[in-house]
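Input (structure):
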């Protein structure tokens, strides 16, 4: 079995002044919710992974999630968005169009 998709969540934490960070904008809750979505789908074990990352770039728009290999970016992700990502993207393989950051994402296939 080979991994088909990785969900990387930025967890960079900066002080509450200056440049914003995903950690300060609640990315830990996004990581926890994505892991819970994965845990609810044992059939995805070994094919889909959730991992944390350092800064991915769009710090002002966080929390940021990037999904590889297809290069889908989600920015401003809220915990209430995660069930839809779990069902449609983790399990179904289709990015959630309403949450996808079109200016950062690779063109849909
Ligand atoms: S701090 Fe998360 S993208 Fe930069």
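Output (sequence):
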């Amino acid at each position: 079995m080979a991994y088909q998709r990785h969900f990387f969540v930025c967890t960079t934490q900066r002080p509450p002044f200056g440049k914003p960070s995903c950690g300060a904008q609640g990315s830990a809750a996004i990581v926890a919710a994505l892991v819970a979505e994965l845990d609810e789908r044992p059939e995805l074990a070994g094919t889909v992974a959730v991992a944390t990352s350092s800064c991915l770039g769009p710090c002002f728009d966080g929390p940021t999630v990037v999904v590889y290999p297809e290069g889908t970016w989600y920015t401003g992700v809220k915990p209430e968005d995660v069930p839809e990502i779990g069902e449609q993207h983790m399990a179904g393989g289709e990015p959630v169009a309403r949450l996808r950051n079109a200016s950062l994402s690779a063109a849909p296939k």
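Notes: The beta strands are 5-10, 48-53, 65-68, 72-74. Residues 10, 12, 21-22, 55-59, 62, 64 surround FE2/S2 (inorganic) cluster (CB under 6 Å).
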